[in-house]
Every structure is written in C-alpha cells, then in structure tokens.
C-alpha cells in the first residue's frame, strides 16, 4: 500500500465538493478555480480537474457559458445549477459531520488509560 | 537551428518547435487514451487544449516567439502526467442515478495483476476478470501446457497484450464486478430499465411542458412576465426530447456493443483453435526427424522438389497462421477495450512475413510442378525363346520379400527390401500386346519417369528396378516396380510391350487382368476381357480358340420359308413341311405324313 495512493484518494474524494464550493458565490472559469484549489494545496497538477468538471456538468450540477478573453482562447465560465446548489448544501452537512467525526477520532485521548 | 510547426490550439495560433510539437502531440494522445467516450472524452480534451493554449499564451511575449521544448515541459508539469487525469469512476458510482441524465456504465477491464503473480500476473488478472479463484486459471494453464505447449504461447500473447495494472484506478478497475452471466444479465436489465425510466420521464416531461405551455399561451397576452416562462418551457421540451433520443442511442449503442462482444468471442475462438491446430501440426512435422512418425516419410518421398519439409511447413504456418493471429487479435481488441497495441512495427513485420511466406510457397509450388515437366523413358529389349508353334503363357508374380506395407497411396507405397532398406514400391505397370511378322517373340520394357529436365527424368527412369522370368514357355512378369527412395516418387511406371509372331497362341492368366487395358485398342491386341482364353495372334486382332460358339437367332418369315426358334415351315407349290411343338407334318401331292402325339399317320394316294 503506497502512501501516495491513499493521499491521492483522500484528496480526490473531497475534490468535487471543493469545486462546487469554489463556485458557490460566483461563476468562475477553469483557471480561477485552479488558482483557488492550488493555493489551498488541494491540487498538485491541473489535469485532474478536467474530467471532474465534465462529470459534474454531465451530472447536471454545473452549467457553463462561453466568454471571450482578450488574452487567449474563449473561456468557459462554470456556475452551479439549482441541483448543484442542493447537492452542495447536502455535501456541506456531510462534510461538517465528517470533519467533526474525524476531529473527535483523531484528537480523542485513549479513554482506557484515563 | 530548429524547424518549427504552426499549430492551432483552441483557436489560437502558435509557432512551435518540431520536437516540442511531437512531445505535445504524444502527451495529448496519452491523455486521450486515459478516457473513454462515455466520459465525454472530446469535451475533456477540448478543455485541456484550451488550458494549454492559455498557459502557452502566458509564456509568449509576442507573436514572433516560438514555443520550445522547455515551455512544453513546463506546461506538462503544471497539467500533470496522463495517470493524474484518470478518475476512479467507482468512487462516484454509487451516486443516486436519478439526477443523472447519463449513467456511466463502466465494466471492469482485464489487467495483469503484478502484485499476485508467479510469472506475469496473467492468471490473477484473468481470475479478477472472471471473478473466480486464481488456482483454477493456473490449473487450466498447466493442462494447456501439456496440450502440446499451446498454453505457453497463449500465456505469452496475453502477457504482451494485456497491460499491467499500475495505478490505483487500474487496480480498482481490475477487481470490479466480475464478468459472469449474472452480471451480464444484470447489465442488460439495467440498460432496459434505464431506457424505460428515461422514456417515461421524458413522456411525463413532455406532457407537463405541453400543459404548461398551453396555460402560458392563455396567460401570455395579459402577463408579459410569463413570456420568459414560455421560453423556458419550450427549451424544456427540447431537452426532454433530447434525453429520450440520448437514451435511445444509449440502448442502441449497448446492443451494438453486446453484438460486438459476441463477435469478439467468436473471433478469439476461431483464431485460437486455428493457431493451436497449426502449432500442433508444425510441432508434429518438426518432430518427424527425431521420432520418425511412420507415413510422414511418404511426404518426403513425394517431395521431388527437394525443398526441406520443415521450411515448407514453417512457410505454411506463417501463411495460414498470421491471418488467424490477426483474427484472434481483432477479437481480443473488441473484447478487451484497454488492450495494448502490438505496435505498428510488429504489425508490419507480421504482414511482411506473411507476404514472404505466400510468395515462397508459390515458388516452392512452381518448383514442385516443374519436377514433372519432362517425362523420359528408358527402353530394354529382349527376345523370348519361343516359336510361333508354341503356346505362350503369361502370368504375374508378386514378391514375398517385401513385407510391412505401411501406407497405401494411389501412386506408391513404401516397403522394406531384404536388407531392411526403404524402397519405393509401385504397381503402375501396363501390359500391351502387339503382333509382329518376325518368327520370334520379343519383350520390350519401357521404364518411364518425370523430372525437371530430360536428364533427370532419364536417370530416374534408368533407376527403376523391374524383372521378369521366362521358362517352360511361361512368362512371369513382376506385378511391381521398385526404386530407391532417394530417387523420389516422380510418376515412375513401366510399360511392357509383347511383340508376338502372327499365328502364335497365347494364354493370359487371370492375374494379368488388372494390368491390361480395359478394351482392345490400337496399343494392345489383348484386353481384360480376353484373359483366361487361348488366343491366336493375327495381324491386327486375336482369335479366341476356346471360346464357346456364340448363339444366333434365326427369324425368317416369307411365304415359302418360315424359320423361328419354335418352328420350321416350308411351302412350295405342291409340297409343304411343318415342324413345330405339335409334331411333324409333311404333305406333297401324293403323300401326307403326320407325326404327333397321336402316333404316325401316313396317307398316300396310291
């Protein structure tokens, strides 16, 4: 069992949740989403995000519109759909539950020794 | 100095060094391969290309600047290696599928499992694929290895063609749902349910939309705000009909895939069976030299062209085997989507090898045929010490020194002579009888053989051994000819011409029957039907001396004379005689005689 694989899987598990969260308040194009994720050190390489975006879009959680760019090709601006918003809300709940659970488990003192 | 290429990446124009271009192209190809169509491959690739264009754009200050290998490396470092693109679909698979317009049905793939391997991990990979224990696959291999080693070949083929599961994603794909009947059935069911659901939903959506539209139309005059709604609803109709057709195309695709898999299995089966049969054939021919399978030396002896047998069999193996290998490969490719390509080099090598083999076989064939291009004969003559007044007896004799006839071929057999050496043995002997005006009988033995030129043919003809003996006015002809196996079988035959003086009597024994011609012809006065009789030789035919006289039928029917099988009747002006089953009646002017069952009556006028 390689530590890298486990790490990658952990990250990939929350990646969809994070992408949706980035788009929570305003639409963004790929480079912006990437910047946020990379700043947070959630993403090492950019490649991972493209299949995820396509999957989320195909699942009806995201939609996009094209916008012309002055400095390159036209950009795809992604935004949340209504389903996406509901989805995100639910994920938020799950995440805080999970966060709590993980915090409890990892910070708990071994009760038997007390 | 470097050559540059112009490329269009997501609609943006770039100058790029040729080597950098090739690297980028390979990179994009590799990424393309890590996705399937159902994942939206073309869309993902378009997005990636757009991002690369953006990154390049940041790295060039003006239009004249060229993108080099350094920039490409930077971009690849940012984007990540092809493995990083792979998403473990199974992680997300258990999402509630109702919100999905498209369900990603991913079956498991065949990989080699290097973690649990003895040799190449093929067995454990197959075990994962079929969802059974590895031990059974291994046992199957062992059995197949005893089956003349075909297992080894199949194993090596799979080892080469099936990729190893390296990344986690691949390992998960490898151990996914096993491919068995239950799962296939489930998948088909799912496919149908999916469609009925979608169709139902679509229908519901359409009715709802139409209802809403109707309502909207009614309200639209008074309420402008509803107009926006109207637009929304029309697009809703569109999207639901789209969903329907999407689902329909999904089902059609699914069916097509199912049929394709079936065809794939069929192709693999045909290819594998043919290959195994060919290998067994090749191995057994190859083993001839070592273990001497009886009968196969027949092939060697008929092989007048002297092309080595192993070469011919190897050529045939390639000429027949390579097309079947491609069939097998095609089947495997249909069945296993992540199959590694055998590579263009291998493909073209095989194609070249096949062409060469076919050409070589044609050449060998022509050589073999040319071996029979010339026929030459060698003639031996002898006088038979017999005069026209004697009766000549002709008999065939076999030989008891040749034993153990291995095989019977139309043309020849192989036998062992007294010294235990193998010889070619043939019964291709013809006897022809001709008349001569000489006083003495003559025998002419014509030995004939084929060859690629006159000399070879003549030599082969000379080397035919054929004997006869003559004593006591009886001619004993051998019913066989022999020749050394080195001479090869090339239509060796013996024609015997018997020149017999006119007026001489001859008797052909029953044993000669098979060696005579069927009917009397210009070549021979004596045919099969005239055996077992004493024959007298005439200038151009024979007279049978002891044949029963032939019956003849008489049927004369005139007013004066009537003769048939039952009666005789003679009528003249004054007299008539009648003999039939009733007796004898004779009548003349002066006397009448009647002999019948009643007695004898004689009446006379006097």
Automatic annotation (TrEMBL), chain A:
<dbReference type="InterPro" id="IPR036388">
    <property type="entry name" value="WH-like_DNA-bd_sf"/>
</dbReference>
<dbReference type="InterPro" id="IPR036390">
    <property type="entry name" value="WH_DNA-bd_sf"/>
</dbReference>
<dbReference type="InterPro" id="IPR052509">
    <property type="entry name" value="Metal_resp_DNA-bind_regulator"/>
</dbReference>
<dbReference type="Pfam" id="PF03551">
    <property type="entry name" value="PadR"/>
</dbReference>
<dbReference type="InterPro" id="IPR005149">
    <property type="entry name" value="Tscrpt_reg_PadR_N"/>
</dbReference>
<protein>
    <submittedName>
        <fullName>PadR family transcriptional regulator</fullName>
    </submittedName>
</protein>
<dbReference type="GO" id="GO:0006355">
    <property type="term" value="P:regulation of DNA-templated transcription"/>
</dbReference>
<dbReference type="InterPro" id="IPR011991">
    <property type="entry name" value="ArsR-like_HTH"/>
</dbReference>
<feature type="domain" description="Transcription regulator PadR N-terminal">
    <location>
        <begin position="19"/>
        <end position="89"/>
    </location>
</feature>
UniProtKB/TrEMBL annotation, chain B:
<feature type="domain" description="PspC-related transmembrane region">
    <location>
        <begin position="233"/>
        <end position="371"/>
    </location>
</feature>
<feature type="transmembrane region" description="Helical">
    <location>
        <begin position="344"/>
        <end position="366"/>
    </location>
</feature>
<feature type="transmembrane region" description="Helical">
    <location>
        <begin position="308"/>
        <end position="332"/>
    </location>
</feature>
<keyword id="KW-0812">Transmembrane</keyword>
<dbReference type="Pfam" id="PF04024">
    <property type="entry name" value="PspC"/>
</dbReference>
<feature type="transmembrane region" description="Helical">
    <location>
        <begin position="139"/>
        <end position="162"/>
    </location>
</feature>
<protein>
    <submittedName>
        <fullName>Phage-shock protein</fullName>
    </submittedName>
</protein>
<feature type="domain" description="Phage shock protein PspC N-terminal">
    <location>
        <begin position="108"/>
        <end position="165"/>
    </location>
</feature>
<feature type="domain" description="PspC-related ToastRack">
    <location>
        <begin position="416"/>
        <end position="549"/>
    </location>
</feature>
<feature type="transmembrane region" description="Helical">
    <location>
        <begin position="262"/>
        <end position="288"/>
    </location>
</feature>
<dbReference type="Pfam" id="PF22571">
    <property type="entry name" value="LiaI-LiaF-TM_PspC"/>
</dbReference>
<dbReference type="InterPro" id="IPR007168">
    <property type="entry name" value="Phageshock_PspC_N"/>
</dbReference>
<keyword id="KW-1133">Transmembrane helix</keyword>
<dbReference type="InterPro" id="IPR054319">
    <property type="entry name" value="PspC-rel_ToastRack"/>
</dbReference>
<keyword id="KW-0472">Membrane</keyword>
<dbReference type="InterPro" id="IPR054321">
    <property type="entry name" value="PspC-rel_TM"/>
</dbReference>
<dbReference type="GO" id="GO:0005886">
    <property type="term" value="C:plasma membrane"/>
</dbReference>
<dbReference type="Pfam" id="PF22744">
    <property type="entry name" value="Toast-rack_PspC-Cterm"/>
</dbReference>
<dbReference type="InterPro" id="IPR052027">
    <property type="entry name" value="PspC"/>
</dbReference>
<keyword id="KW-1003">Cell membrane</keyword>
